[in-house]
Design goal:
By secondary structure, the chain is mainly α. It folds into two domains: about 60 residues, Orthogonal Bundle (Tetracycline Repressor, domain 2); about 130 residues, Orthogonal Bundle (Tetracycline Repressor, domain 2), CATH 1.10.357.10. The chain has nine helices and no strands. Helix 5 packs antiparallel against helix 9.
Length: about 200
């Protein structure tokens, strides 16, 4: 039985997204080839362009979807940043392509400043700020205001630090890139170390 046009079109679009995710993750934006994406998705370039307009727009769609995936699969636990960091570590093992997409976006799109629309971080930042106010995590007084007590570390900097710690063994590490094929005991050791390090960094006074 032939699927309805809308269902068939959505299936084609999804195949393009999956093929493009793999292509961009491996080759970056400049190195990716639309003809390879179309072939892998079992469609043609005309159909691809009808859905996404251009290679750049295709990358933007793929990258946005990858970031949304991470937010959906690994939601922040602002009152347990250590747990969040460990879950991010595990997601990088399962989906190394997602972290590679972010790296290509940094190299080829936004070499400075925010990597993506700042609005995507707003829920995480609000959660961290609430946890700071509740005393669940260290407020991180920096003492740079000249007054008593200093000032609270910006929630964005807290988020950035936890993410950086979670990426210590990520596919784009400058030291060592972990893979899911390594022994389970190795991953347990890293998780324990990461969890302890984040807890020590952000433990309440």
């Amino acid at each position: 039985m032939t699927a309805p046009p809308t269902a068939k079109g959505e299936a084609t679009r999804q195949r393009i997204m999956e093929a493009a995710t793999a292509e961009f993750a491996q080759h970056g934006i400049a190195g990716a080839r639309v003809d390879r994406v179309a072939a892998a998705a079992r469609t043609n370039k005309a159909q691809l362009y009808s859905y996404f307009g251009s290679k750049d727009q295709l990358f933007d769609t793929v990258f946005a979807a990858s970031m949304q995936h991470v937010m959906d699969v690994v939601p922040i636990s602002a009152d347990d940043l250590a747990d969040w960091a460990v879950r991010l570590y595990d997601e990088y093992l399962v989906r190394p392509d997602l972290i590679r997409l972010a790296t290509w976006a940094r190299l080829e799109r936004r070499p400075a400043g925010h990597l993506m629309d700042e609005r995507i971080d707003e829920p995480k930042l609000a959660a961290i700020a609430a946890a700071q106010s509740a005393g669940a995590i260290d407020t991180g007084d920096t003492g740079d205001t000249g007054g008593p007590g200093g000032t609270q570390v910006d929630p964005f900097d807290v988020m950035a630090m936890v993410i950086a710690m979670s990426m210590a063994w990520s596919p784009v590490s400058n030291v060592y890139a972990a893979t899911a094929d390594e022994p389970a005991r190795t991953h347990r050791r890293r998780r324990d170390f990461l969890r302890d390090a984040v807890r020590r960094a952000f433990a309440p006074d």
